[in-house]
Amino acid sequence: xxxxxxxxxxxxxxxxxxxxxxxxxxxxxxxxxxxxxxxxxxxxxxxxxxxxxxxxxxxxxxxxxxxxxxxxxxxxxxxxxxxxxxxxxxxxxxxxxxxxxxxxxxxxxxx
Amino acid sequence: xxxxxxxxxxxxxxxxxxxxxxxxxxxxxxxxxxxxxxxxxxxxxxxxxxxxxxxxxxxxxxxxxxxxxxxxxxxxxxxxxxxxxxxxxxxxxxxxxxxxxxxxxxxxxxxxxxx
Lengths: 111, 115
What we know:
The structure holds two protein chains of two kinds.
Chain A: E1 4-6, E2 9-13, E3 18-24, E4 29-37, E5 43-50, E6 55-58, E7 61-66, E8 71-76, E9 85-93, E10 99-101, E11 105-110
Parallel strand pairs in A: 2-11
Antiparallel strand pairs in A: 1-3, 3-8, 4-5, 4-9, 6-7, 7-8, 9-10, 9-11
Chain B: E1 4-7, E2 10-13, E3 19-25, E4 32-38, E5 44-51, E6 57-58, E7 67-73, E8 76-81, E9 90-97, E10 104-106, E11 110-114
Parallel strand pairs in B: 2-11
Antiparallel strand pairs in B: 1-3, 3-8, 4-5, 4-9, 5-6, 7-8, 9-10, 9-11
């Protein structure tokens, strides 16, 4: 199959770290992305990783990729209330430029 | 850079009318634009891929005559929902890709409500 799967919901306390997980099935994926969507808005690109990388860090965001297990994670350090949103992972295959999205993980940050 | 503007942000129309949604890349040229549909609390479903100067490529199950896509320039793609019905009510989002990088930049979305 060509599914991208994510857990539905994550609750975290302000100041703690959040880890959002994503699994995919297509080993030919070239790029993997994390997007953030706030209520009623479009998608904001947070970060992305090329498939030959294991890790990428950008300020509070750390992306880990386990290509063998087809597992992608996004860690948000020092989570803030403004991080409450839906987070989508997406994969891009080697052929073509279409993205396949996961179902989204709703992150709720409690003060 | 890489700003995608989508208009209108919200539209309410009567059943049977047609609605046009615009997607513009403001500061870059987009050879490819994508149109997605998102139902409440669900993920994005790709409807079609729009290439400048050629016919759009529709995903399986998407009616070409219902959702007309035009990509007349490198900065503008339009989606027209023809003869809209209540079941077409949804959140429509466009994205645009730059040639120099493998990233899609998204518009803010258009909420369509058909009465």
